[in-house]
């Protein structure tokens, strides 16, 4: 689910577009992110980045979808963050 690398923090997740509200759900070892946007023309990916950016308090430009651009299963890299921010993100996810 979460992996710290030299480039930043990798998050493996499963996205659920067209949800009634944006939410983070931890289901065992799977991190599910619900977004209200539809999976058309990259709108769900954009909504995913915006939601994670607000939730983790990290600039949108720090996010990059490494794998799964057109899939529900994605790997997102958060670049340029320090250990303090990594720990904050891990805590937010654990509290879900």
Quick take:
This protein has helices spanning 43-56, 83-94, and strands spanning 2-4, 8-16, 23-27, 30-34, 63-67, 73-79. It is α+β, with helices and mostly antiparallel strands and 96 residues long.
Give an overview in words.
There is one protein chain. By secondary structure, the chain is an alpha+beta fold. Helices cover 27% and strands 35% of the residues. The protein contains 2 helices and 6 strands. Strands 1, 2, 3, 4, 5 and 6 form a 6-stranded mixed sheet that branches. Strand 3 and strand 4 form a beta hairpin. The model has no long low-confidence stretch (mean pLDDT 95).
- Which sequence of SSEs, written as H and E, runs from N to C? EEEEHEEH
Rounded to an integer in angstroms, the radius of gyration calculated over CA atoms is 12 Å
The biggest sheet, with number of strands, parallel, antiparallel or mixed sense and barrel status, is: 6 strands, mixed
- Count of individual helical segments: 2
**Which class do the helix and strand fractions yield?**
alpha+beta
Total E-strand runs = 6
What ranges have pLDDT less than 50 throughout 5 or more consecutive residues?
none
List keywords for this structure.
single chain, 96 residues, alpha+beta, six-stranded mixed sheet, 2 helices, globular
Helices and strands, with pairings:
Elements: E1 2-4, E2 8-16, E3 23-27, E4 30-34, H1 43-56, E5 63-67, E6 73-79, H2 83-94
Parallel strand pairs: 2-4
Antiparallel strand pairs: 1-2, 2-6, 3-4, 5-6
């Amino acid at each position: 689910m979460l992996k710290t690398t030299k480039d930043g923090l990798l998050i493996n997740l499963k996205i659920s577009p067209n949800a009634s509200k944006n939410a983070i759900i931890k289901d065992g070892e799977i991190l599910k992110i619900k977004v209200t946007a539809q999976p058309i023309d990259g709108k769900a990916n954009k909504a995913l980045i915006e939601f994670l950016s607000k939730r983790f308090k990290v600039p949108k430009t720090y996010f990059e979808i490494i794998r799964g651009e057109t899939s529900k299963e994605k790997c997102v890299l958060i670049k340029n963050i320090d250990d303090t921010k990594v720990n904050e993100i891990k805590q937010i996810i654990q509290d879900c």
